[in-house]
Amino acid sequence: MFLVHHKTAHILSLQSLITRCCGQRISTNQNRTLTVADLRQLLKEEYLLLSAQANLDSIAFLTQQIKRLEKAIKKKVKLKKAFQCLLTVPGIGEILALTIMLEAGDISRFAKVGNFASYCRCVSSQRLSDGKSKGSGNRKNGNRYLSWAFVEAAQLGRRYSERFSRYYDRKAAQTNTIVATKALSNKLARICYYIIRDQVAFRKELFTH
What is the 3-class SS of 124-186, one letter each residue? Predict the structure, then answer.
């Protein structure tokens, strides 16, 4: 997870650099195919090119190391059926599925889906009385790794699922992108609760608007 965080930081840094200097947005998918030759076409100043190339080299190196670690971890970890089921959710790959499976543990310890979503830090910690805010609860309660996993799943899922994307866009229009991401992560946590509990694959019908 530490390496994945760093890889993401380099991807965002490279995208930001190209946007600032070229006025051109590079998607994550386009980022995967960028070469040094492409960077030379985009960036004319040597210091900008070297900075972008450093990001590109770091992404390639971290990708290689993450894959090596994934392979070693999968040899060691006893995969449950839930792991394969989680992989059917748009936006959830092997690392996120492993994180969710291992950090959730025995799903039966959560009496209701709301308990699981709360443990994943996917629900508001605000305290209300008569409709008025009376402060917030302890935001550090719950599992920070599951919180990270479902936020990542929300960011990735809206790229691969039209339903996820529409839900996110509607929430973002009503509030802001941070709240929209949190709302989508809450939806995904709830879906994954039932997927793990019932050992079933994801179905689009599970994602209700």
Answer: CCEEEECCEEEEECCCCCCCHHHHHHHHHHHHHHHHHCHHHHHHHHHHHHHCCHHHHHHHHHH
